[in-house]
Amino acid sequence: MKKNILLFVIALSSIMVSCIDDDSISGKREYLVAVPLTSDLRQFKEEAIDISEPEPIQQSGKIYAYKNFVFVNDVYRGFHIIDNSDPSAPENVGFIKLEGNNDISVKDDRLYADSYGDLVIFDISDIENIPAAKRIENAIYQQFWCTVGFDVDWPEADLYDYSEFDVNNEAIVGWEVKREILSEEEFMEKSGYGRVSEDLAFNSGAESASSDSSTGQGGSLARFKIVGDYLYAVEWGSISIFDISDLDNPKTLDDVYTNGAVETIYNQGDILFLGGTQGMYIYDITSPDKPVFVSEFIHGTACDPVVVDGDYAYVTLRGENSCGNTESGLYIVDLTNLAEPKLEKFYSLTGPYGIGFKDDKLFVCDGADGLKVYDKSNIQNLTLLNHFKDIVTYDVIPLQNSLLMIGNQVLYQYEYLENDIELLSSYSLN
């Protein structure tokens, strides 16, 4: 989700107006106008949550490991619960419907997730009897896009008429398209130009308000990260911060706005590393409620997850489709001086996504080119230990005893060997 979606809507409307070829005497012309079909926002969000029996996955997203469970995101729909007590024979045991969901993070049996910009908290101490969730509205972001149903198809139209849409109390569940004869002034009024910024703009203000723990583990594509008693959630141009010392009653703290557009988050101790479309951004969380910018490593436009081991950051850049035109590959960044990170080595890749490491093994999900396993003991000369071809790869989580990887609706698990890994199981989520 991008906070500039509204600016895009306004700009699009303006472009449409500038391109009108009006030959009529009246100065009007015919448009296809899409009007939102709405429902009550509170009811809409309540119906977006449900606990159900296992069901087939539609679009596999990120994975998250906690205790003997693996949670697999079904993009914008919720997440599947996999009992992984036996990695050679995982079992799908349930589905948590949570529309508008992308990420989760878990601490001490409290699962934190996003849903249409809200923070949702589940008690998963009894995975077979999960009670009603708690929802903190607009905790992560508050914007127009968050009130559009994940399964709503956008129709072809000259104009999307939001002039009667109440962003604070309504959700868009569909569209009605009709023909209207409008002047340029009427077109601009219906487009919301001049009032969109007031009614639908992002709310930059946050609503105010360690002991030993068991915290789960996400992959390099995660937007959520728990460090101590704090949950950090990155959302395009900001870090949302929550004090979760009271697990059931998180406090929403002030957002920190980042130096660039960010997509992923990783930490090494008290340092956060944010992967973004233009670079890697480093923040100090010595004061955990107030991340402080340290430095940045700027690269060309690309999708950019990052993991860090000691003095080196391993960044995969994917420069295809909407990600940009930067050469796809693995960028190894020297962090010896955090104030001045610099490129140490580059290795070409096909179209990488997630990345992870365990000891001297580096695992790279190279999209349709499969999973690649490297020996990273000498960063100047990475050695390819294995290449698992003919599978689509998305993200990995290196656990203590095995490697988790999500591909195209398949959960793969591998056993570590001395100089390789070996497939333990492949579990279809369909």
From TrEMBL:
PROSITE patterns reported for this sequence: PROKAR_LIPOPROTEIN
Source domain of life is: Bacteria
| Stored InterPro entries | LVIVD
Question: What's this protein's name?
Answer: LVIVD repeat-containing protein
